[in-house]
Specification:
Length: 526
């Protein structure tokens, strides 16, 4: 029988180059190389042991966390690293609890031109000692994500979120209790009370995508889904009130669910969003995309995970900067696409009438009217106010005046603002063998309790998230089986017994309470 130690030593370098090697394919390659049978289970164990040996053992990486933080600050003095340990254990050495990292380039980048919008989210780590990764993601000039900071914590609760938010506010110099800032979340555990304590004056938004997931479990159907999203996308109070009345007419329980005190509309409806951030997003896709982007890194030990994230961000900043340098135009591509769509709608739907000043009355093809003020850059539909990009009413008004549309787009979407953000490069760092040694006692990994079964590496998705690759349709929950032959509920065609002959009647003896036996006929209804 081939030993695991031998296979690790022989195939370690090949596995390090191809980390995504499947166990079945790896087992075949090993068997062909050594001319002996290697099972898929053995290949899985060999791959796991080889990657741990290449990355360094987990306990060794925890012991070098302080050295890693010092190396990051040596490469970029603007970098913030905060490590929190537990000294209450019986051992003399500190036990790891949390680590926060905000690279200097990321910190300076969001200050250079990103909007005052931050998405917060947490993701489970897949390493042996578990934990969670908290992330803060901003919004750049092209409406794409700009990662601000990330932290490894023991669990997601009020205490960990307060600690993370306080460090984040200190790095971004958020003052006045967060006034003027927008925070978007999925209502993570402990995050709502953390907001109330750290940034009570900030505008908080809940992810409508997660809200719809909870809504559709109670009120299924496409009609209810479309109406809920229609209420969330309402940009004015009259539209919101009218859409909510339509929801009440469809299902009064759904109306009561959406108006409960725990989900006030100021957190999820555009009609209540402020107009200072030039952002109308209602979901937390900024963080969700980042978490799925680093899913492989979240399986690794701490130093390897942080290095994978840093390298990914370093490459992305370089690639995005080079693409934008080759782009011709003074407005970034994604805002330009939104503006082009408004131009098409303005040409077919809107007719402006000026009052002699800066105001115009725009009549839509449906017959309703909106008021546009070019001096204040506002429209009564509030789409221009929320995004900073002229809506179709504003576009028709600007074209009527023979003026340039680009002059009425908010400065946060310009190419020069984008280049200012991506002019902050993440500094290169040395490998572990060139790091300096810290004189403090080494950090021990947290307590680990192994759960039964094979460790899960993928999140269990909700039925609304499941998409079949072949058809591309959303998955659904199967509530009951219905037979295609007899049209009865409880079984399917394969198990239907409609065409089977009836079972023979059998006699059995049954004794009553007095001990007397009698025959009873049992039969099956056809």
């Amino acid at each position: 029988m081939v030993k695991q130690r031998f296979l690790v030593a022989k195939f370690k370098d090949q596995i390090a180059v191809n980390e995504h090697w499947k166990p079945d394919s790896l087992a075949k390659a090993m068997s062909a190389s050594i001319r002996a049978r290697v099972s898929s289970q053995m290949a899985y164990k060999v791959k796991r042991a080889a990657l741990l040996e290449v990355d360094g053992f987990i306990k060794f990486q925890f012991a070098r966390l302080r050295d890693y933080g010092n190396e990051l600050k040596r490469a970029d003095p603007d970098t913030t690293v905060d490590i929190k340990c537990d000294f209450s254990s019986t051992s003399k050495n500190p036990v790891f609890k949390r680590m926060y990292i905000c690279l200097g380039a990321l910190k300076n980048g969001i200050k250079a031109g990103c909007r005052s919008v931050i998405g917060l989210d947490g993701a489970h780590l897949k390493s042996a000692f578990g934990g969670q990764l908290l992330t803060a993601v901003g919004l750049d000039a092209n409406n794409t994500s700009w990662v601000v900071s990330y932290a490894m914590v023991e669990m997601e609760n009020k205490d960990s979120w307060i600690w993370f938010l306080e460090l984040l506010c200190k790095d971004l110099e958020i003052k006045e209790d967060g006034a003027g800032w927008v925070f978007i979340s999925d209502k993570q555990k402990g995050l709502k009370p953390a907001f109330e304590e750290v940034v009570p004056s900030a505008h908080i938004r809940f992810c409508v995508r997660h809200m719809w997931t909870n809504f559709t479990k109670l009120f299924p159907g496409k009609v209810m889904k479309d109406q809920m999203w229609k209420c969330a996308k309402s940009t004015t109070m009259p539209y919101y009130l009218n859409d909510m009345e339509e929801m009440k007419a469809l299902d009064e329980d759904a109306y009561n669910w959406m108006t409960e005190d725990e989900r006030p509309p100021k957190h999820w409806c555009r009609a209540f969003f402020n107009t200072t951030s030039n952002c109308d997003i209602m979901d937390n896709n900024l963080c969700e995309i980042f978490n799925s982007w680093i899913v492989d890194a979240r399986k690794k030990p701490p130093v390897s995970m942080f290095e994978d994230i840093r390298l990914k961000l370093m490459k992305r900043i370089q690639v995005r900067r080079e693409k934008m340098e080759a782009y011709e135009g003074n407005i970034c591509p994604k805002p330009r696409q939104v503006l082009e769509k408004s131009k098409v709608k303005a040409a077919t739907d809107c007719t402006p009438t000026f009052n002699g000043g800066d105001e115009a009355e725009v009549e839509n093809i449906e017959g309703n009217k909106n008021v546009v003020n070019l001096r204040l850059r506002t429209c009564s539909c509030r789409r221009w106010d929320l995004t900073g990009i002229p809506c179709k009413h504003a576009v028709s008004t600007i074209h009527f005046r023979r003026q340039d549309l680009d002059d009425y787009v908010a400065d946060c979407y310009f190419k020069k603002r984008y280049m200012a953000i991506y002019s902050n490069f993440i500094r290169a760092v040395n490998s572990m063998d060139l790091w300096g040694r810290c004189e403090d006692p080494p950090i021990l990994p947290p307590a680990y309790s192994r759960q039964p079964g094979r460790p899960k590496t993928q999140r269990i998705k909700d039925s609304s998230e499941k998409i079949t690759k072949a058809e591309g349709k959303l998955g659904r929950q199967q509530r009951s089986l219905k037979c295609g032959n007899c049209h009865q509920v409880g079984h399917n065609v394969k198990t239907c017994q409609r065409h089977l002959p009836p079972k023979e009647n059998k006699k059995r003896k049954v004794s009553n309470q007095e001990g007397e036996e009698r025959e009873e006929m049992s039969y099956v209804c056809k």
